[in-house]
Amino acid sequence: MKNNHPMHFTEETAKHLSEFLAVEKDEAGKNIPEPTKPIPVVFPAPSVPMHTDDECHVQCESRTDVGCVRKINQDAVIVDPPLFGVADGMGGHQGGEVASGECRDGLITFLRNREVDAQMLETAVKVVNRRIHIRAGEDASLSGMGTTLTCAWFDQKQIYIAHVGDSRCYLYRDGHLEQITDDHSMVMEMVRAGVLTPEQAAVHPMRNVITRAVGSDRSVQVDILTRERKAGDLWLFCSDGLHGQVEEQEIVEYLHLPIAQAADALLKAAMDAGAPDNVSLVLVLDKGDEA
Predict the structure, then answer these.
(1) What's the start-to-end Cα distance of the chain, in Å?
(2) Domains assigned to the chain
């Protein structure tokens, strides 16, 4: 069972962010971050990760490929222990690549060295959303850009997941694969409403239309989910370039392999299926308290 946690900023959070954030109310009445003064809308490239996979008691493998059709890879993989995930950009010739890259770099820069916390994760996504939106408004060539985001921040006992769009997070536990996130897409909204079947949605001409994206609007609604860590869990974060081409039953077959081989096999399966879109995935094996 997934847990949804609507977040509200506390005085402590506001204090942590006071160097570059002010708080205002959006139309829904929730607090959202706002720059207090002109700030660079391009995040600096993150430096070397502060933590290693071993320190976080995980093993990680990531893969990304432009695919068989596209000329530009607009995906970005997020690997900065204890933060992992994917972003799938959209918007014009360069906009998607810029949006996903800004999302990745912004989250890493914002969250590095902070205490792992669900509220802080949501705050970070909202800050990144605002900065991407500002940049798109200042550069006509980037107008309308945005990106999906599915990422997880690992604490010692729990995992906090932030999700916007139709990239996905899966959990492979005890031989069973579970989709943790719900797609924010037009066709999946219709599936949940009983208008379409999953089989119809998979081939629907509007299947790539998403209903939420980071950076497309001034504010963004973020799904925040919490799961308990368990040794042996294998987490998969992927863009629709993978899950849209490779059936879950086939994905499970590859997850039995050692993690590096599994990552290679998943990418190859998407490529063998024609890979009409960019393909990105991050696999994270939870080693628990192992050395």
Answers:
(1) 30
(2) 58-286 (3.60.40.10)
